[in-house]
Design goal:
There is one protein chain. The chain has about 325 residues and is an alpha+beta fold. Among the domains are: about 110 residues, Aldehyde oxidase/xanthine dehydrogenase, molybdopterin binding domain (Aldehyde Oxidoreductase, domain 4, 2-Layer Sandwich); about 90 residues, 2-Layer Sandwich (Aldehyde Oxidoreductase, domain 4). The chain is built from ten helices and eleven strands. A five-stranded mixed sheet has the order 1-9-8-7-2. The longest helix has 19 residues.
Length: about 325
């Protein structure tokens, strides 16, 4: 008695489009007095970057072996899975059993992961359910095509980053507006990619005032997960491009802008405005060592020779510091 007509809806692939309809988290953060710094600064310089999805593929794909033990009302699972302690309770909840009734074993040597296997993949839960329904152990071995299609990739992100800049190139404040594309749905530990760098959104630079807006959006893509240094490349791609934009806009050498804004050598341990502690270091000395040992002068000569021949040749700089494990 019910007549149903199905029609496909257009896929949402651009996170900016999703920001108008599929936002699952919208949070604002403020450290210091960024509004006053922007109001007083002689220059406001901004950049918008689009960081693409990317992934790394372990040599060894997923393998799950699951068995249901009806006498104990328990499941025993062997899987080459990274991060079993943090994510085990969530999988037990999905199976509707106490945590001590999901015995998850991971071999001591389990190929590579680089974060790809650090997620609540549905495979472990699904194999456990299949074993219960079949009444016998079930094994699933992921092939390479399945992995390339459905394994987690790093999030793609659209970032607008604006700086309040003094006449000498010193950054007085930063304002981040980040739109994080986590795919079709959130699964633990996401949105960790967005927040891993949160305490250090000023990077290696001495910036006292900071504003951040973080939006997590959903699109018609595979759900995202952790990938190799998760969250760091997204931040530093935007931040270091902004440093270059400041130099070009104000007519400075990019390396001079970096030097002018680095945390000074005598300031360690240094607390970033969002809370991270840079415990030790000498960033200006590190720059000097890189210039000396890597032959920046020689690179400059090679660049001029290449450009004289009509070839494109550039020299880029990036000053990066990330949270340790």
């Amino acid at each position: 008695m019910i007549d149903v007509t199905y029609r496909p809806l257009p896929a949402t692939l651009d996170p900016r489009t999703a920001a108008g309809c599929d936002v699952v988290s919208d949070r604002h953060f403020r450290y210091g007095d960024p509004e006053a710094a922007f109001a007083a600064a002689p220059h406001r310089i901004a950049i918008t970057t689009e960081y693409p999805r990317n992934g790394c593929t372990p040599i060894e794909c997923f393998v799950v072996m699951a068995e249901h033990l009806p006498g104990d009302g328990a499941y025993e699972v062997i899987a080459n899975f990274q991060g079993p302690f943090a994510l085990h309770p969530v999988m037990a909840l999905a199976l509707g059993v106490p945590a001590n009734k999901l015995r998850l074993k991971t071999p001591p040597d389990s190929g590579g992961s680089f974060g790809v296997k650090q997620a609540i993949f549905p495979y472990i839960v699904l194999m456990a359910v299949a074993a219960r329904k079949a009444g016998r152990p079930v094994k699933w071995v992921e092939d390479r095509l399945e992995h390339l299609l459905a394994a987690s990739s790093a999030t793609n992100r659209v970032m607008t980053l604006e700086a309040a800049v003094a006449g000498n190139g010193e950054i007085l404040a930063l304002a981040w507006d980040q739109i994080e594309d986590c795919g079709a749905y959130l699964r633990a530990p996401e949105p960790a990619t967005l927040y891993r760098m949160h305490g250090n959104m000023t990077g290696a630079y001495r910036v006292k005032n900071l504003a951040i807006r973080n939006r997590v959006v959903l699109t018609n893509k595979t759900p995202s997960g952790l990938n190799r240094g998760f969250g760091g490349p997204q931040v530093y791609f935007a931040l270091e491009r902004l440093m270059h934009r400041i130099a070009v806009t104000l007519g400075f050498d990019p390396l001079d802008v970096i030097r002018r804004n680095l945390v000074p050598s005598g300031a360690f341990p240094y607390r970033c405005p969002a809370g991270a502690i840079l415990d030790s270091g000498d960033y200006p000395a590190a720059v000097d060592a890189a210039i000396e040992e890597d032959g920046l002068a020689q690179l400059g000569a090679r660049r001029e020779e290449a450009r004289a021949e009509g070839r494109l040749y550039g020299i880029g700089y990036a000053a990066i510091v990330e949270p340790s494990i």
